[in-house]
Design goal:
The complex is a heterodimer of chains A (498) and B (476).
Chain A lengths: L10 H5 L1 E12 L38 H13 L3 E2 L2 E2 L2 E4 L9 E4 L6 E9 L5 E13 L3 E3 L8 E3 L6 E7 L6 H17 L12 E11 L9 E6 L2 H20 L7 E6 L4 E7 L9 E2 L6 E2 L2 H9 L5 H11 L4 H7 L3 H13 L5 H22 L10 H12 L5 H11 L6 H7 L8 H14 L1 H8 L6 H11 L6 H14 L2
Parallel strand pairs in A: 12-13
Antiparallel strand pairs in A: 1-10, 1-11, 2-6, 3-16, 4-5, 4-15, 6-7, 7-10, 8-9, 11-12, 13-14
Helix pairs in contact in A: 2-5, 3-4, 6-7, 8-10, 9-10, 10-11, 13-15, 13-16, 15-16
Chain B lengths: L6 H9 L5 H14 L6 E4 L1 H17 L9 E5 L26 H8 L3 E6 L33 H8 L5 E6 L5 H7 L2 E4 L19 E6 L2 H11 L30 E5 L9 H16 L3 E5 L7 H16 L18 H12 L2 H14 L5 H24 L2 E5 L15 H5 L6 H6 L3 E8 L5 E7 L5 H15 L1
Parallel strand pairs in B: 2-3, 2-4, 7-8, 7-9
Antiparallel strand pairs in B: 1-3, 4-6, 5-6, 5-10, 9-11, 10-11
The chains are: A alpha+beta (498), B alpha/beta (476).
């Protein structure tokens, strides 16, 4: 089959087809030790150091299931409205590869721990759509084969081998590349809120394969699907699906048939290419893992995990709009990660005069200053130097009209490297706004007296001269005057004398 | 040490200061040397054993010695001992050294047993005659033209020829009881889950069980008692408490015991001497007040087919790790990844192992799974039910261990089915997980030993040791 379309794909043509997409997500679990051994999961200092005889697949070793893996899988199951299987087993998936030490992967086959779940994703228009979860199962990761370090050999690093994974399989409910993107982002949000996966796609902690087919709009039967692999970033998932949908439409329109096959996304070439067809598909010869006893999950365990579930991003976002009176836009950004939301809530908690206005000021400082610095310094909020209580002080300094918005920026910049409080910095720098009425009245009087012509013109109806008077007053007070009070007093004076 | 001496006698002499562990270990290596033509050992550990003997002698003097002080033990070479070879009788594991010791080995050492060496075996425990070892066959001590049985032939011979006091083998379908019967020693297959499998190289994980050989029932009970019990490294091991198997063995009695004889285990073509010895034993039991009950295990005919589907399926997966990639034999003729797998495995595995990997791969493959593997699992449940029903009527089941005494080397190598049928009386205990013990009940006209076995309900090892101890005393 040719990969390049020979016919022109017009929007009308594309609109005749409906894409049908299902995603398979592999998430590495943040356990301290491996799925079936006591070896550590953290990144090893050298290749093949986070191993033990079990991870190495040495003869005579046996797997022992890590209880945390089960807990994490149940956590994800409950967060995705899934059923939890009370009794399930593991299965062996048999295939040969040098980074698979036992020659089989311990996985789950007919009895995944979670099944029949769903999550809601948000569409561009603001509506939500429910995407079904077919199953979530537990398995172990393979090691890594490194083909480009040695000229003549492939090197194998088994540090990753045996790391626990959950595989989350969606129903074919996704209808576009952008829905797939939203779904994946939502999954990442849930996984990170649950603190069971780092969600980092670039590092391979989150991996995604897409099953894609297209059918004529209105048709009931699914088209032949292809599986696209190697989607190693969130944007690549969207791009690859977009490409594959158009490739399939073009192929069908050219009279070709789609072959069931596995295709690889080539991010450089921005296209997918065939990897192996169904005839060459592995026969994994799944059978029940005889080295592990069936896993029996008590109701009490499920209830305990349910009680410990955190509020997830979607619910928290809604709460931020009601509890703090934030606009949805602010709430969405501040709940993007659990840590960021926690930080914001600690800032709000430290504000002495609790009010929606002050929460919004805190939100503004977070979004304009804090997030900018995090992006510049490429750090997460956990690594951010200013404690939330100090940020609350800064917000209140502004809310109390002690400093100007320009001062806020300067003080914030100073706070990044100084242990001093916002108040101390503002005093040192002489940033404190003058709100003394007598002093300001005197300044306003001086400015009006010095500009009789402009005052005349203003009173004659040239309202846009008002800014000029504000500017002159600020100049006279070297920028320390409280601009709000200056405006008030100017208005009074200019209109009084009329 | 004399070939007949039991550990109980030995321990009495040790405690009385009449001998030392150093002497016992030296005698052990002498016996191995004298019997080197039997090819029982693949590796000997004289330096480690001698040092250990000195340590244990000191503990005996100090009165702090463990329950197995001075007991010499041979390990089948599929049981891991730290820093020692672990060949499984195969070329593919030549040069491999274990990084750790099996749980059973640690338990033996904690009680001051002394490991003497690693014994020959059928390659990856796949065989019933010890003829599939890459390192050559093991010979029967009484007739070197005959097989010692398998797959734990080397361990069986070590005990039968007085090279060590006890030995560990492993059972998947009868690999300890069958050689025990051929060699005239005691062989114990514990309940599945009774003894940790951690450190036993897997053949068929749902059937494998580490199983000891000893010269007396008491010694067998003692070593079983030590190696049994839950192991956190093997989640299939049972938390059921371990009883005292040695208690009361000297006064063992069968009076009032109900003993079942399954009619399916008395088949046409069985050796006359086996039939005769079984008949004599039955009479002795009845005379002693046991009640003999004829019972039926109706699915017995399916035992061997069921066994060979399940065992080979699991083996095909368990042996996938021997691929030349990380350890063991890698073909020097391989240029590509495919060739590394193909040639390393083709050259590294023997014929019988390859035959079973092929069979197992086939029964698990898509389109055949339901017809073979799933069906075999269903049959396994029926066999299990047979046993459960039988034990509602009787306390123990008595049967011959093998249909014939030891056969000749080469007699069955060209006929795999005939070879497989030598497990016909033993495999049911493995498939159903129940414990069983094989013990000598006399000889045939050529002086070859004949064995019988007691099978007991799950975790009722104590009951079968009682029965076997009575037989041992009654037959003298």
């Amino acid at each position: 089959m040719t990969d390049t379309a020979t016919i022109e794909l017009t929007p009308e043509l594309i609109a005749r087809y409906e894409p049908v997409i299902g995603l398979e997500i592999h998430a590495q679990l943040l356990t301290n030790t491996k799925a079936f051994s006591r070896a550590a999961t953290e990144a090893g200092p050298w290749p093949n150091t986070n191993t033990d005889p079990v991870v190495l697949g040495h003869p005579g070793t046996l797997p022992v299931l890590n209880r945390r893996v089960v807990e994490f899988a149940i956590r994800m199951g409950l967060a995705t409205n899934s059923q939890i299987r009370r009794r399930c087993g593991f299965a062996r998936k048999n295939y040969f590869y040098p980074d698979l030490p036992k020659g089989y992967q311990i996985s789950q086959s007919d009895e995944p721990i979670c099944y029949e779940g769903w999550i809601e994703i948000e569409l561009d228009g603001g509506e939500t759509k429910r995407i079904g979860i077919t199953r979530i199962h537990m398995e172990e990761d393979a090691g890594k084969s490194i083909h480009d370090l040695d000229i003549t050999n492939t090197l194998v690093d088994l540090n990753r081998a045996g790391t626990p994974l959950i595989e989350i399989v969606s129903e074919p409910d996704i209808r576009s590349a952008s829905e797939a993107y939203s779904y994946l982002m939502q999954m990442k949000s849930i996984l990170t809120y649950l603190e069971i996966c780092s969600g980092n796609m670039e590092e391979g902690a989150l991996r995604c394969d897409a099953n894609i087919s297209v059918r004529r709009r209105g048709a009931e039967a699914f088209g032949v699907k292809t599986e696209v692999k190697n989607l190693n970033s969130f944007r690549n998932v969207e791009k690859a699906i977009e490409y594959e949908i158009l490739r399939q439409i073009a192929a069908i329109e050219s009279g070709e048939t789609i072959t069931q096959e596995t295709r690889l996304w080539d991010a450089g070439a921005r296209s997918t290419r065939a990897m192996r067809s169904k005839e060459f598909a592995h026969d994994y010869r799944y059978f029940p893992e005889p080295d592990l006893v069936p896993l029996v999950i008590a109701d009490a365990m499920i209830e305990e995990i349910r009680a410990g579930l955190p509020e997830l991003a979607i619910a928290r976002k809604q709460r931020f709009t009601t509890q703090y009176g934030l606009p949805l836009y602010d709430a969405a950004i501040l709940t993007e990660t659990r840590d960021l939301g926690d930080y914001f809530e600690r800032v709000c908690g430290a504000i002495k005069q609790q009010s929606p206005e002050r929460f919004k000021i805190a939100s503004n400082i977070m979004m304009t200053e804090v997030l900018r610095v995090l992006a510049e310094q490429k750090v997460e909020i956990a690594g951010f130097g200013i404690p939330p209580e100090r940020l609350a002080e800064l917000a209140e300094l502004f809310a109390d009209d002690v400093v100007s918005s320009k001062n806020v920026k300067d003080i914030f910049a100073e706070m990044l490297t100084s242990p001093k409080s916002a108040k101390e910095i503002s005093e040192e720098k002489g940033f404190v706004q003058v709100s003394d009425t007598a002093f300001l009245e005197e300044a306003v009087a001086q400015v009006i007296a010095a500009n009789p012509g402009q005052a005349e013109a203003y009173r004659g109806g040239k309202g846009n001269l008002f800014g000029y008077f504000v500017g002159e007053t600020m100049k006279l007070t070297k920028g320390k005057a409280n601009p709000k009070m200056v405006s008030q007093l100017l208005k009074q004076r200019l209109e009084q004398a009329n | 040490m004399t070939a007949a001496e039991s550990y109980s006698e030995l321990r009495r002499r040790l405690d009385a200061g009449e001998t030392t562990c150093a002497q016992i270990v030296a005698d052990s290596f002498d016996a191995i040397q004298r019997g080197s033509g039997l090819n029982a050992f693949l590796a000997q550990l004289p330096a480690e054993a001698t040092q250990r003997a000195a340590e244990v002698d000191a503990r005996i003097q100090a009165g702090t010695a463990g329950r197995l002080a001075g007991m010499t033990v041979a390990l089948k070479d599929n049981i891991a001992l730290k820093d020692a070879q672990l060949t499984c009788g195969s070329k593919i594991l030549t040069g491999f050294t274990s990084l750790y010791s099996a749980t059973v080995v640690e338990r033996l050492q904690a009680e001051d047993a002394i490991i003497i060496g690693k014994t020959n075996m059928d390659e990856f425990a796949m065989g019933s005659s010890n003829e599939t070892s890459f390192f050559g066959p093991v010979h029967h001590p009484l007739d070197s033209a005959r097989v010692p049985g398998g797959s734990s032939g080397g361990s069986g011979v070590a005990v039968a020829a007085g090279m060590t006091c006890c030995a560990l083998g492993s059972e998947t379908g009868g690999s300890v009881r069958q050689p025990a019967a051929f060699l005239g020693v005691v062989g114990v297959k514990p309940t599945y889950g009774r003894v940790s499998r951690y450190g036993l190289v897997a053949f068929a994980s749902s059937l494998d069980q580490i199983s000891p050989f000893a010269r007396t029932v008491h010694d067998a009970a003692l070593i079983t008692e030590v190696i049994a019990g839950h192991d956190p490294n093997d989640t299939t091991s049972s938390s059921e408490p371990v009883g005292s198997y040695t208690n009361g063995l000297d006064e063992a009695d069968v009076r009032g015991m109900k003993i079942g004889l399954p009619r399916e285990y008395f088949i046409d073509g069985m050796d006359e001497a086996v039939v005769a010895r079984m008949k004599e034993l039955r009479e002795r039991l009845e005379d002693a007040g046991a009640e003999i009950v004829e019972i039926s295990l109706p699915h017995t005919n399916y035992t061997i087919p069921c066994y060979y589907v399940i065992a080979t399926a699991e083996a095909s997966s368990n042996l996938a790790r021997f691929d030349g990639a990380r350890y063991g034999y890698r073909s020097p003729n391989a240029e590509t990844l495919e060739e590394m797998y193909e040639l390393s495995r083709t050259e590294g595995f023997g014929t019988e192992v390859k035959r079973r990997i092929m069979l197992g791969t086939f029964v698990l493959s898509s389109g055949f799974y339901d017809a073979y593997y799933r069906k075999a699992q269903q049959v396994r449940r029926l066999l299990h039910r047979d046993m459960v029903e039988a034990f509602k009527q009787v306390d123990l089941i008595l049967a011959p261990t093998t249909p014939t005494p030891a056969f000749r080397l080469g007699e069955k190598t060209s006929d795999p089915i005939a070879m497989y049928l030598s497990d016909i009386f033993t495999a049911a205990a493995n498939l159903t997980g129940i414990p069983a013990i094989s013990f000598p009940i006399g000889k045939d006209a050529n002086g070859l030993p004949i064995g019988a076995q007691f099978m007991a309900p799950h975790f009722q090892e104590g009951r079968m040791f009682q029965g076997a101890a009575w037989v041992e005393q009654a037959l003298g």
